[in-house]
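Service request form, structural biology core

Requester: graduate student, group of Dr. S.
Request type: structure prediction, single chain
Budget code: on file
Notes: please return the result as structure tokens.

Sequence provided:
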Amino acid sequence: MTTIIFLGTAGSSAVVSKQSRSSGGIILQLEDLQFHLDPGPGALNKAKEYGVNIQNTTAILISHNHINHCNDVNPVIDAMTHSGLDHRGIVMGSKSALQPTENNYPVVTRYHQTLVERIIPMEKDHKVGLDLVEIHALPVEHTDPYALGFKFYCPKFILSYTGDTRLTPQLLEGLKGTNILIMNVPYPGNKGQGLNLDTESAIKIVTQIKPKLVVMTHFGLEMIKADPLVEAREVQRITGVQTIAAKDGLIISTENFNNYDSNKSPVRGY
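Core staff response, request fulfilled:
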């Protein structure tokens, strides 16, 4: 059985700084594997609150170097490895988070890099295999030029996480075949700013990709004011694809996903 747990749904820095929505990232549990995506501020506290054992983490994935996506990566590494007593785990993702670049230092400290088994800086379209899962780095466009999304090829389904990005033909190509689509949608309607998605862009993606389930998350102030639930209903109305507006602590179970029934929601705690 696979479980997805949202440790937070905050998008913009204004939402994160006020903690009007939490920002601990997303947990993906697949059989004996546990992945922690984008551990932002409060990751450890929210993991404890929602019953996630960080010490079971197999890999941490960082889409890019913005603080709301990677602020707590070092504390998570410390917890995952028992402060280095258990040399284990993998950290992978954006080069800007893991290596020095022209404009910034890596987010993961040199000390914490020594605590884990492997550090894997990923390029766009990079592929990494971990037991039953193959992870592809999706091509995205964001203010961090090294930003990535992630596509998980699991035994029974394909799950994609866009990270922060604008809509591009390359993104659409990379998302093909996705069954479960997690999208960062900070803006409602057609109010997208810069290199981020809005509801209108989300509709275009879902219409073309046709996944079985869509989860919208990473909400900014304007999206929260507009009500993410209303925006998700609009995506579902237009596309015909079940679309959920994530909330903090949301749990999605994907057991028997091949036999997915749109009239029987896989969502718990919603």
